[in-house]
Amino acid sequence: MTDDDGKTTGRASQAERVYAELRARLLHGDFAVGQRLVEQQLAAEFAVSRTPVREAMRRLEGDGHLVRDQAGGMRPSVPSVRSMREVYDVRIALEELVVRRAASAGDRGLLEAVQQDWHALEAEWRGRAPSVTGPDFVHADEAFHQRIAQASGNDMALRLLSDLNDRIRVLRIHDFTADDRIRATIAEHLEIVDAVLASDPDAAAAFMRAHVHRSALVVRERVGAALSRMFEAG
Q: What share of the chain is helix, strand, coil (3-state, %, to 5)?
């Protein structure tokens, strides 16, 4: 490996570390509402140059955790609890629609593949060697719901669900900051797909509705706690 490659790899690992630590602090609400995150100060705090800090902040902006003000500065994104509630109401109706259709006339091969994948993920967590952990689990969760929608054969529902996920991803990450919620989600996903494969639309819809509602409550509680810390930090 050349020196240039080594420097590039070092910067990448530094940027990843800064990104992970800043994201955890943003999710926890450690920065005050309206507080500007200054590259130079963060670089000194993390004992790195400004380049990995800049890269991490750009990534956090792309994720929706930071917003850019009119002067070009980066500030914490303030979640909208009202908007979250409205989107979850729509999501519950949409998820119930697709899971009923999947249970009645879904793509069985795809559904069996989903079931197999989540049994494998359950085994990873039982063996304490999970391949997906923490807030990054949100992407695995989204994939589960989108594959159920895909199996239902309703392309419009699949597109709408993808759009909803884009809108609330930054909020839903709050649901997966603790291992117990990830384990609970895995169990709930298996309940849903088992009912779908049993061709029981009523049970599948009930499991799905309870699952999404439970997630919404957890997100609301944790977003509320993070918001309280953000205002207290000011």
A: 80, 5, 20
The tally of domains found in the chain comes to: 2
Taking the CB of residue 148, how many other CB atoms lie within 10 A of it?
A: 28
State which residues form the domain around 106.
Answer: 81-233
Is the distance from CB of 184 to CB of 169 less than 8 angstroms?
Answer: no
> Residue 73, CB half-sphere, CA atoms under 13 Å: how many?
9
User: Whole-angstrom Cα distance, residue 112 to residue 28?
Assistant: 37
Question: pLDDT 10s digit of each residue in the chain, 234 long?
Answer: 344 555 666 767 899 999 999 998 988 889 988 999 999 999 999 999 999 999 999 999 998 899 999 898 999 988 777 778 888 999 999 999 999 999 999 999 999 999 999 999 999 999 989 998 988 899 999 999 999 999 999 999 999 999 988 888 888 888 888 899 999 999 999 999 999 999 999 999 999 999 999 999 998 888 888 888 888 876
Q: Are residues 54 and 95 in the same domain?
A: no
The CATH number of whichever domain residue 70 belongs to comes to 1.10.10.10
Question: Which residues, 6 or more positions from 206, have their beta carbon under 8 angstroms from its beta carbon?
Answer: none
Same domain, yes or no: 105 and 140: yes
**Residues near 65 by Cβ (< 8 Å), separated by ≥ 6?**
22, 23, 26, 27, 76, 77, 170
Among the three residues 27, 51, 76, which one is the final residue of a domain in this structure?
A: 76
